[in-house]
Amino acid sequence: MSEEKKYMTLNMGPQHPATHGVLKVILELEGEVIQRAIPVIGHLHRGVEKLGETRTYVQNIVYTDRLDYTSAMINNLAYCLAVEKLMGIEVPERAKVIRVIMSELSRIAGHLIWLATHALDIGAMTLYFYCFREREKILDMWEMVSGQRLTPSYIRIGGVLADLPDGFMDRLKSFVDTFDAHVDEYDQLLSKNPIWMARTKDVGIISAEDAINWGMTGPALRGSGVKFDYRKAQPYSGYEEYEFDIPVGTKGDNYDRYLVRMEELRQSNRILKQAIKKLPDGPIKAHVPEIVFPDKDLVLKNIEALIHQFKIGCGGFSVPKGEVYASVENAKGELGFYIVSDGSSRPYRFRIKSSCFINLSALPEIVKGSMIADVVAVIGSIDIVLGEIDR
Amino acid sequence: MEQIELMNILRNSGYNIDVFEGIDCVTCLVKKEDLYDFMKFLKTDEKLKFNMIVDVTAVDYPEDRPRFEIVYHVYSIDNNIRLRIKLKVEENDSLESVTSLWKGAEWLEREVFDMFGITFNNHPDLRRILMNEDFKYYPLRKDFPLQGIEES
Questions:
Q1: Domain for residue B147, yes or no?
Q2: Is B58 inside any structural domain?
Q3: What angle in degrees, to the nearest 10, is found between the helix axes of A168-190 and A93-122?
Q4: Are A34 and A27 in contact (CB under 8 A)?
């Protein structure tokens, strides 16, 4: 402890299990009370925005998987929506419903990781295994459709990679039928648990006004009582046709954010049920041969289709000059892509607006005046993924 | 609020701005000197109420003078509408920070400084955010090589 400063400085992280990746928080303490918290980020910086300027529009899809890697498919969707908007492509109805199914599965997968790690941070070990049991089923479904568990890149510009394989719908139905009961199970373990309540109630409070002023989005904003969700406010991919509620909190503490996300798990399942009923037959890709890959079985038999695939894969396609901002509601908040095109096949500027980045920037204000142990709970509760923050 | 209505309000606001309709949202070009006043107007105006900052970023056009284009996105929860504000700045210019209006701009402006080297006046804590503090270059400028610079 330095004499003149009177506060003790404590480095939390970067290699600390409760910081969900490689986040460092410099804490200035008086006793156990935090006077000042300074998050230090960038340990996971890969330069995705720079890389994006040198790759074609198709090649960039794989980078979006690695942003919020706990719920990869929504990121694919956000990027594809931006490019589609810029090019004026309309996606067929079946592809839209498949995209909604994948988005909601991603949201559930993302929220399950949040619940598992948040509970683990606070000391509830059992729940971790419960959550991963259900998440595993989602990852298996992703593996069925794309061959990948963590980085599917399944949603493509103009539609989706391939049609749903045989047996997918059966698995999805059995998942959807049992999931509500599993959420009740988590609920029973935590919601009335006195230790859980002591660690989350009245901890990490942020008012609605402050949350808006900080630009927070997602469950972190809704926990403060602001009824705001991009799926309702600016619907994309046909979300206006689904019935679902936006849960909100009242106080804006950890417990409210917890309740909001728990209800979102149920609401996502409700959307999935509607999507299963709705799923129409038809094409899964827009009929725009310049930008959409030919079907794989054609490529293996037909030389023209092979050339076609080669041309899009290697040369890409040119996108009209202009700029566009498109965003989706991902598991953490608003994920937006701002793309500037100069008319070539590569973006001139590939900007990713990350919700975690902004939500984390409010951390110093949220934890000021609270205890060290609360920092762990608050970081878990605002739900950050460093892959998306550092880009 | 519809795009047309927003465009009318902006055109009659008395600021020296160009307003046009984009594919996704209304875009307006402001002068560098007017930036802070105009942003304050957007945030405090009774009808507009742009209460949320969405994004602050920049685009580098090395051949153009002024070289950089700064792009702000703001959003109004009450009116459910997004607005893009753009302005041109030169390499050594510094801009007025909007952190006093929206606290969320703090890190976003730091990132613009880190990646493009554009400075902001009256910013509470203008340091590098993603790169090391002793890093000397601005990676998202078009003249920075993709492989990086060896000694850095």
A1: no
A2: yes
A3: 30
A4: yes
Q: How far is CA A379 from the centre of its chain?
A: 16
Interface test with A, best of B49, B52, B74, B152 (most A CBs within 10 A): B52
pLDDT tens digits, residue range B125-151? 888 888 888 888 888 888 888 887 776
Hunting for tokens 């969320």 — which residue is that?
Answer: B104
* Total domain count, chain B: 1
The CATH number linked to A329 is 1.10.645.10
Are residues A340 and B59, on separate chains, in Cβ contact within 8 Å? yes
**B107 interaction partners in chain A (CB closer than 8 Å):** 357-358, 361
CATH number at residue B64: 3.30.460.80
Asked if A338 lies within 8 A of B22 by C-beta distance, the reply is no
Contacts B103 to A, Cβ<8 Å? 210, 213-215, 361-362, 365
Domain with B7 in it = 3-121
pLDDT at B151: 62
What is the model's pTM?
A: 0.90
Please give the C-alpha separations between residue A1 and each of A34, A67, A200, A368, A373, in angstroms, as whole numbers.
Answer: 14, 38, 30, 19, 20
Question: Within A43-92, where are the H helices?
Answer: 48-52, 61-65, 72-87
Q: Is the pLDDT of residue A1 over 70?
A: no
Residue of chain B minimizing CA distance to A340: B59
Contact A376, A119 (CB under 8 A): no
For an interface test with B, give the residue of A349, A360, A366, A388 to mutate (most B CBs within 10 A). A349
Q: Does B136 reside within a domain? A: no
Question: Which candidate from A50, A86, A226 shows the least CB-CB separation from B140?
Answer: A50
Phi first, then psi: give them for residue A9, nearest 5 degrees.
Answer: -100, 130
Rounded distance between C-alpha atoms, residue B71 and residue B29, angstroms: 9
Report ipTM for this prediction: 0.90
